Amino acid sequence: MPGGQARPAISGLMMNLYLTAAVAGLAAGGAYALLGVCAVFTYRLVSVVNFVGAAIGAAGAFAFAMLVEQGLPIGVGALAGVIVGAAVGIGVGAIVTKWFAESPASTKAAVAVALLVGLAAIGLRITGGQHPHDFPELIRGSAFRLAGVEVTNASVATLALAVLFTLAANLFLDRSHTGLQLRALSERPVAAELIGIPVHVLSLWVWGVGGAATALALIIIAPQRAPNFLALSLLVVPALAAALIGFFRNFWVTLVGGVAMGMIEGLASVIPGLGEYRTALPFLVILAVLLWSQRGARWDDAR
Amino acid sequence: MMRASLRSAATVAIATLVVGGVAAGVLPGYWIYLATAVLITAVNLLSIGIVEGRTGMISLCQLSFAGVGAWTVGYLNVAGAPGGLPLWILIGGLAAMPFGIAIGLPALRLRGINLAIVTLGFASAFDAILAANTFPGQTQFLQVPRPYGFDSDEGYFLFVLIVFVLIAAALELLAGARLGSSWLAIRHSERAAAAHGVGIPSAKLRAFAISAFIAGVAGGLLAGYLGTLVADNFTMFGSLSLFAVATMAGAQYAEGAIIGGALVTLFPELLRRLNLPQDLGNVLFAVGAVQALSTGETISESLRRVRGRLLRRRATETVVLNRADLPRRRDHGAAPALTVRDLSVCYGAVVALDDVDFDVPAGSVVGLIGPNGAGKSTLIDAVTGFLPSYEGSIELQGKALEGLLAHKRAQLGVRRTWQTNRIAPDLSVGAYLMLASGGLTTAQLRAALAWIGRLDPDQKVAKIDAATRRILDVAGVVAARPALALLDEPAAGQSYDEALRLAARIAEIPAVFGSAVLLVDHDMDLVRAACASVTVLDFGRVIASGPTAKVLELPAVKTAYLGVDETVAA
Q1: Which of B236, B256, B291 corresponds to the end of one domain?
Q2: Do B60 and A299 touch (CB under 8 A)?
C-alpha cells in the first residue's frame, strides 16, 4: 500500500509533538497546583476564598525581579522575594483578621476581591504598568528526558514544591496540635479565642506561609509567563479552578487537578485553532466540576 | 408594597430626568460627553447591584456580559439589521441573558461562593475570546451609528439618560414586588426564604439573568457611545474594579449607581488634571469597598440613613382591628394536618428523635413541650424539610412529604416561624408580610398586622425590636393560611401580658384562618391558654400526650421539666 509506511511515522511525530507540549505544560501545572493547594489551605484554615492569593505571590515575584535588576545575586533576591511575599500575605491577612474575622464567607470573599483590585493597582503602579521586567531564571536547564522529551528543572521544581506543600499541609492539619487548633479557628474564631487559642497570630501565620509559597512558585514560573503584575495576579483563576476540583477540601485532588490543567493547557497550545483560547480552560473545568457536584439542596450552617 | 414602590420608581425617574435635563442644557460639551460615560457605567453598576446589593451574591464578569451586548450590536450593525440602535441594544441585552443563565445554572443550585468563582472564570475565558476577535466592522472602519435624532453628544446623553431611567424605575418596581422581597430575604437568610416557599435557586437565577440583561444593555450603549470598541473595554480586571465600585457605592440604588459611575469616570479625570497617575482610582475603590464591607454600609445607604433622619417621620397611625378585613379563612378539610410515624433523627451518635409518633388534627392547636435538647426544634426541622435526612414518615393531610425540598413543603402548606430572628432587616413590615403570605390586599394586610399587634406596615424591620419581629413572623405564617403552622417559641422575649394576648390570638388561628397549629414554647401559661392538647418530648422520646391540663399534672412531665422526682419529693 502506498503511503502505508509513512502513516505510523507521522502519527509518531504527532504523538511526540503532543507529548512535548503536554510536558511543557508541567511547569505551569505545578504552579497551578501549588496555588490551588494554597487556596485550599487558606480556605480550610481561615475560611477565605483567596482571590488575592496570586497577587500576593506576584508582589514577591516582582520584588525578586527588581532586586536582581539592582544587582542582587539571584539566590538572595529569591529569598528576599519570598520574604516580601510572606510580608504582603501577612498584611492582607491583618486586614481580613482585624475587621472580618466573624464575617460570613461571602463577605470575606468580597473583601478578597476588593484587595485584589487594590493590590494589583498598586503593583502595576510600582512595577511600571505594562512595561515588562526581565525575570531571571531562578532554576534553569533541563533535568532529564522523558520519552524523548526534555523535562526542565523548573517543572521539576514547581512540581516538587507543590507535592511538598501538599504533604506538609496534610500532615500539619491532620496530625499536629496547631493544625487542630487552626481547624477550630476557621469554624468559630471567637469560640476558639475563648478557649485560649492565639487566633490572631495563627491566622497571620497561615497568610504568611501561603504568601511565601505562592511567591516562590511565581518566581520560578514567571520567566515563562507574560511578565506583568496583572497577568501574574490573575493566575488566581486556574488556582481557584484547581481548588474547586478538590472541593476546597482535598489537597491531593487539588494537586492532581492543577497539574492536569497545566498539561491540558500545554496540549491545547499546539492544536490549531484552539491555542489562542487555552486560557478559557479553567472556566470549562469550573463549569464541569459544578455540574458534577450538585446533588440536592444543602444549607449553609450559618444561615 | 406596590404603591410605595410605584412612588419610589416615579421619584427616581423624575429626579434623574430633571437633573439630567438641566445638566444637558447647562454643561459644556466635554462634560456632557463625560456625563454620558457616567450614566453608561451607572447602568452597568445597576446590574451588579441586583446580584450583590439585593441578593447577596458576587458576580465578577459584568463587563463580559457588556461585551456580549456590545458585540451583538456590532454584528447587527454590520449585517445592516433593521430597527437601529435602540432595538439592537435590546437584542444585545437579550443575547447576554442566556450566557448569564448558562453560568448561573450550575453555580446557583449550590450554596456558597461558587458564583464568584465561575464568573471570574468566565471573565477570564471571555478575555481570551475577545483578544482573538476584533469588534465587528472595525476592519471596514464601520462605526455603530447613534439613533436618529439623538446623534449629537447632547442627544446621545439624553438617550442614555432615558435608558438609565427606564431600567432604574423598573428595578424599583421589581424591588417592591414579591421577587424583590424574596431577593432581600435570600440575602439575609436562605432558610427563612425557603420556609416562605421561595425556590432559592430560581430566584437567584432570575436575579442573575436580569443582571446579565442590564449589563448587556450597558455594552450596547457603550457601542453607540464610542462607535467602535476594543477588547480593553471589557477586561476581567475592569469587571473586578467595577465590583469594588459597586460594593463601595451601593449600586442596588439608583443614586448609588450614579455615584459609582461618577467615581469611575470623574476620579481619573481629576487625577489627570492634578498630573497624578490615573490608576490610583482602583486603589481608592479597593479601600472604599473594604471600608463599606467592614461597616456594612455603602455610600448610598449612608445617604439614605442621613435623609431618613432629616425628614420627620410621619406619626404612626393607630390601626383598629376590623375583623371583616382579615384574610378569609381557608378550609383545609377534616384530614389530620400532620401525621408523624416512627420519626427518628440522629446527629452522628446523638439520637435527637427516637421513634416519635405524633398527630396534629385539623382545626386544632397542639402544644409540643419538653426541656431544652428534647428534640422540639429538630422535629420542626424534620417536618419543614430542613434536615438532610430522617427515618420514618411525615404526612401533611395524608400526603407523604418525603423527598420534597423545604420550599416545596412550604408551598404545599407547611409553614414555620424561627427561634432566631431571620427576617430580612431591609424589608418593610408590609413587604415582609406580602412575601410571607403570598399576596394580600392592602386592607387585608392592615387587618392582619392589627390582629397580631398594631404594627406599622411602612416601618423597616430593622427598626423594630426582637420580640415584635417574632410576632411579625407569626403574622406572616398565619396570613399565608397554610394547612399547618409550626410556631417555634413565639412568646420568647414577650412580657407576661403580651404573651397572654398572643395566646388568645394563637388559640383562634384555626377558627379565623383555618390553619392547624403546632406550638412549641416554654411559657406554660401560653401553652395552657392556647393549646387544647399537648405532647411532651424528653430526650427525643414522647413521654406523654393528651389534654393539656391532664398532661401538665403528670408526675413524669414534672420530673422532666423540674428535674425532681415527684414521688421522692413528696
Answers
A1: B236
A2: no
Is B308 contained in some domain?
no
Mutation target to probe the A interface, by most A beta carbons within 10 A, among B51, B119, B232, B290 is: B290
Of A99, A280, A299, the CB nearest to B191: A299
- Nearest CB partner across the interface for A294, out of B106, B405, B422: B106
The domain spans of chain A are 25-296
**Nearest-by-CA chain A residue for B423:** A303
B275: left (phi over 0), alpha (psi -120 to 50) or beta: left
Residue B531 resides in a domain: yes
Distance CA B450, CA B435 (A): 18
- For B154-182, the pLDDT digits (tens) are 889 999 999 999 999 999 888 888 888 88
Are the Cβ atoms of B279 and A279 closer than 8 angstroms? no
Cα gap A141→A139, rounded to integer Å: 7
Model ipTM over 0.95: no
Domain count, chain B: 2
> Among B242-246, B318-322, B482-486, B499-503, which range has the highest average pLDDT?
B242-246
Residues 137-196 of A with CB under 8 A from B: none
Q: Give contacts of B121 with chain A, Cβ < 8 Å.
A: 237, 240-241, 282-283, 285-287
- What is the spatial distance between Cα B443 and Cα B325, in angstroms, rounded to a whole number? 6
Q: How many whole angstroms separate alpha carbon B210 and alpha carbon B354?
A: 47
CATH domain A25-296 topology: ABC transporter involved in vitamin B12 uptake, BtuC (1.10.3470)
Q: To which H or E segment does residue B351 belong?
A: strand B350-360
Q: pLDDT tens, B300-356? A: 888 888 887 777 555 555 667 777 778 888 888 888 888 888 888 888 788 888 888
Q: Do A99 and B290 touch (CB under 8 A)?
A: yes
Closest CA to B484 of B413, B418, B535, B533: B413
| Inter-chain CB proximity B116 and A278 less than 8 Å | no
Q: How far is CA A145 from CA A15, A261, B567, in A?
A: 15, 22, 87
Question: Does B243 lie at the interface with A, CB-CB under 8 angstroms?
Answer: yes
Domain that includes residue B151, residue range: 2-236
Nearest by CB to residue A286, choosing from B121, B243, B405, is B121
- Structure letter (DSSP) for residue A281: H
Q: Tell me how crowded residue B246 is: count the other CB atoms within 10 A of its CB.
A: 29
Banded model confidence at residue B126, pLDDT cuts 50, 70, 90 = very high
Q: Quick check: B517 and B550 in contact, CB under 8 A? A: no
Q: In the prediction, which pLDDT does A57 show?
A: 94
**B121 has a chain A CB within 8 A of its CB:** yes
